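> call design_seq(struct)
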């Protein structure tokens, strides 16, 4: 009688111990999978991750994306990206941009950054450069970097960007990729005085720079939408160049 009781007790304890160990192992396995899972949801994401490039949308869905070179809504009026359909940046640059959106959330709730271009293959850079060959190289490089010398876009270390209030684009006083002086940040004070920029447009540009300055992005002096994340020296030392899509 007692022997049977102790046998049943031993079996019960053993079963409880095994169940607890199995649950513990399952929990550890799930935790390890979560920690090792990359920020990726497509094959293309995985390819870019291998180069250190991260999808901005995957990192911070509050940032809107409208890649202008995936459609004909650009200065060349034709599709330039045949495979790229997301905005990718170097991991550290993408994290900084995400923090810019967090900062924007804190000062202007309901506002969003909207990305027009991020990493750009050198193959596309060549198309852009050739398309503007009617301009002397000295003038041309104000708007498009030479594919030989590279653009920080080619490293995933530059971003073309604007602002939205809800679903409404903020008026910046010129279109994206408008290649004339009205797009020059360095001439904004002059254009404000002359009435070529309204006070609202002027303040919208200042807000964009304030947000991007919060993570040390530097605006290009001839394009209000273009922000560099670092110097060329830093990019060449730390990042890979994207040659093709």
């Amino acid at each position: 009688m007692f022997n049977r009781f102790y046998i049943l007790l031993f079996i019960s304890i053993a079963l409880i111990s095994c169940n607890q160990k199995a649950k513990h192992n399952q929990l550890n396995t799930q935790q390890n999978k979560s920690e090792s899972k990359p920020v990726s949801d497509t094959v293309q994401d995985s390819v870019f991750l291998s180069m250190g490039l991260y999808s901005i949308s995957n990192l911070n869905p509050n940032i809107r994306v409208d890649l202008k070179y995936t459609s004909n809504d650009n200065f060349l009026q034709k599709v330039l990206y045949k495979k790229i359909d997301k905005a990718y940046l170097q991991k550290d640059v993408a994290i900084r941009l995400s923090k810019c959106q967090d900062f924007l959330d804190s000062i202007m709730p309901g506002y969003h950054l909207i990305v027009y271009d991020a990493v750009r293959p050198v193959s596309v850079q060549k198309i852009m450069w050739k398309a503007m060959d009617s301009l002397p190289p000295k003038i041309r490089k104000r708007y498009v970097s030479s594919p030989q010398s590279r653009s920080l876009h080619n490293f995933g270390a530059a971003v073309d960007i604007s602002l939205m209030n809800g679903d409404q684009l903020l008026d910046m006083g010129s279109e994206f990729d408008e290649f004339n002086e009205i797009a020059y940040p360095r001439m904004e004070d002059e254009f404000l005085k002359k009435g070529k920029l309204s006070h609202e447009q002027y303040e919208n540009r200042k807000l964009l720079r304030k947000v991007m300055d919060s993570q040390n992005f530097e605006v290009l002096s001839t394009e209000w939408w273009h922000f560099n994340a670092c110097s060329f020296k830093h990019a060449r030392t730390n990042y890979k160049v994207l040659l093709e899509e």
